[in-house]
Amino acid sequence: MGRRIRVRFSSTEAGTNRSDDSEGTRTWVDPVTDMAMILGGPRPALLLPLILLAACLVLASGEPWIEPNFIFQRKHVNYPKTDAPDANAYCNKMMLLRGLYGKAVNTFIHEPVSNINSICKDGGTPIIGGLYESKDEFNTTQCIFEPDTLSISYIGVEKKRKIIVGCWNGYPVYYLEQL
Predict the structure, then answer these.
(1) Signal sequence span per UniProt (predicted)?
(2) DSSP 33-99
(3) In this structure, are 24 and 79 located in the same domain?
């Protein structure tokens, strides 16, 4: 017996598809029927309820999903602080883990997210243009790129200080670096 090969040709003018195999059988298929059969599998109508369910779960958790705040947290919040032998090793480790390697300066805040978020409400003092200065001091590690080394490395400086953040919709989305 010979091997069966199925080849599919399409005709845009006729609006139909023809398939041949090596035994000489021909099948004409209507693209509308093909699409209806594809939709007979997974139900696209289930997609909307699933999306609504996910949105309800996020809202029920009590934590808002604000993408710029999420990005701010990824770049600047590390609580509890990741273990490292010293501030320089901490910076090299964290800048790599967070995908910030090569950035000139970055500061990590070692406080709970709720404390940091409160700066944009009653825990901070408005300065100008959506910037707020914290009323309390925060534990931070500032990572400064060291250009004099052959490899990419950072100098870490641990400080307890007031911080300045940019707020949007009541949440921090920007950290103002203070050198």
Answers:
(1) none
(2) HHHHHHHTSS-GGGHHHHHHHHHHHHHHTS----HHHHHHHHHHB-SSPPP-SSHHHHHHHHHHHTT
(3) no
